[in-house]
Design brief:
The chain is α+β, with helices and mostly antiparallel strands. The chain is built from 9 helices and 12 strands. The protein has a 5-stranded antiparallel sheet, with helices on one face. It starts with 5 loop residues before the first helix and ends with a strand.
């Protein structure tokens, strides 16, 4: 039965159990019914004997006949009473009688009753009780109300027991066949009801094994099978969620790895140019070629280039260290008014040196839970870029609006094609505001500030945008606006 499926296995077990119960119950009925019936007859026989003795002991002699007659008619038993040399015989069952009705007869006083017994001889004027396969018979002495000694014999036939056994033998085969048919029917229904939900669960789990997201076990009952279906559904949904999270994490890791590769390539390219320039300048000085013989003039230039080169390397290291380490930093509830004011102090001096001004409106103060160091880096990069690229004698505005921080700087707006790449590492838009007459970039930007800012804000899951503001029908724009949304 190991290879047999659940339905036939369940059907065979249930049918076998029901068939065994039917066979056992029929066998018990056939063998126990006569015993129980005989026992009940014997109890009734003893009760009748006891009641009749009590009544005969209290009745007057002239009423003995009527009492015996009534008892014989009611109980269908044979009753014999010997009183004062006379014998009253009322024999309805089991004894010879001279008429169709219960009669009073005179017999010789030394009569006896012959019964089947292990002892030979007659039971003569003795108290006795005997049960045979055909009848029950008992005899007892008693005294009437006038002190006369009497003798009572009662007999009852057991013939209905054998008749009942014969009748049982006739209908038992039919009831047994009917029981087996009913067993087959209900075993089929029960097996179908039990195995159908389990079969459905098996088919559904096969689909779940193939990661079919639409696979769901039906929960039709509140019993253990229904609980099993519900637990499987919850387990599968948890599994799908875990798989989705793993896939997202793998995608994020893949993107991070790809970003690292792109960053390293871009960093290598960025570092190659200043390194090549510095090496070329030093080679020319060493070989004394042309004007580079004046090493006292060009050594400070080399030193300045090395300093910028060191600053670039530091920024590259800072960017490469991001790797979202700040995620482990605990969040702290801060008031943005105080937080921003503490960052602004050095930038007021820088703006003043360029002839510009920083205007602030932090009256709409609000609080937020942020990682302190990460948010300091974000705001420092944004404010530094705003001050750095603001046109001379123009304004940088910093204010709060609807739970957001807004930083505006008056400048030539960045073109749309450049905005699409502005958050890429080492990307620097080529526009006139960042170049002087010699073609050099006086601001010294390396294109990492906005890249780092975007990485941090995306990891913190804060929305932000960077776009021009102040467009109208008559002018080209007033500047750029960076907004960080905290809600």
């Amino acid at each position: 039965m190991k290879k047999m499926k659940l339905f036939p296995k369940t059907f065979i077990c249930v049918f076998s159990l029901m068939a065994a119960i039917s066979l056992i119950s029929h066998a018990l009925f056939y063998f126990i019914m006569p015993i129980v019936y005989t026992g009940q007859k014997e109890d009734v026989f003893k009760d009748v004997k006891k009641q009749l003795l009590m009544e005969l002991q209290n009745v007057s002699p002239e009423n003995i006949e009527s009492v015996v007659k009534n008892y014989a008619q009611q109980t269908q038993m044979g009753i014999f009473v010997n009183y004062a040399g006379r014998t009253f015989l009322t024999a309805n069952m089991g004894f010879s009688e001279q008429s169709d009705t219960a009669l009073q007869k005179e017999y010789e006083s030394n009569w006896s009753v012959q019964v089947e017994s292990e002892t030979e001889g007659d039971l003569y004027w003795q108290d006795f009780y005997n049960r045979t396969n055909a009848e029950l018979i008992a005899g007892s002495h008693f005294q009437t109300s006038d002190g006369q000694a009497c003798y009572l014999v009662i007999s009852s036939t057991l013939q209905p027991v054998s008749e009942a056994k014969n009748a049982v033998l006739i209908f038992l085969p039919f009831t047994l066949q009917l029981s087996l048919v009913i067993s087959v029917f209900f075993a089929f229904l029960y097996s179908k009801k039990i195995t159908r939900p389990l079969s459905d669960i098996s088919k559904t789990t096969e689909r779940m094994k193939e990661l079919d997201k639409s696979a769901v076990c039906k929960v039709e009952t509140q019993d253990e099978i229904g609980a099993l279906s519900e637990n499987i559904n919850k387990l599968y949904q948890s599994l799908l969620t875990t798989i989705d999270d793993i896939q997202k994490e793998n995608m994020r890791v893949s993107e991070a790895e790809a970003a690292k590769i792109d960053f390293l390539r871009a960093a290598s390219h960025e570092l190659k140019t200043p390194v090549t320039a510095l090496c070329g300048l030093l080679d020319n000085m060493i070989m004394g070629i042309g004007r580079y013989k004046d090493w006292e003039t060009y050594l400070p230039i080399c030193q300045e280039m090395a300093g910028k080169f060191g600053g670039m390397i530091q920024e590259i290291l800072d960017a490469s260290k991001l790797n979202f380490a700040f995620e482990k930093e605990p969040l702290e509830e801060v008031l943005l008014n105080t937080f921003v004011k503490e960052l602004l102090s050095p930038y007021f001096l820088i703006a003043k040196s360029k002839g510009g001004v920083i205007e602030t409106d932090l009256s709409a103060d609000f609080s937020a839970k942020v990682p302190i160091s990460a948010m300091e880096k974000v705001l420092s990069n944004i404010i530094s870029n705003a001050v750095k690229y603001t046109n001379p004698k123009h304004t940088v505005r910093i204010y709060f609006s609807n739970n957001s921080i807004v930083v505006e700087n008056e400048c030539i707006p960045i073109h749309t094609k450049d905005l699409n790449h502005i958050f890429e590492p080492f990307y620097r838009p080529d526009f006139s505001r960042s170049r002087n007459g010699t073609g050099e970039n006086p601001n010294g930007g390396n294109g990492l500030g906005l890249y780092i800012t975007a990485k941090l804000l995306n990891a913190l899951e804060y929305r932000f945008d960077f776009k021009p503001f102040g467009y109208s029908d008559h002018d080209s724009g007033h500047g750029m606006r960076f907004t960080i949304y905290f809600s």
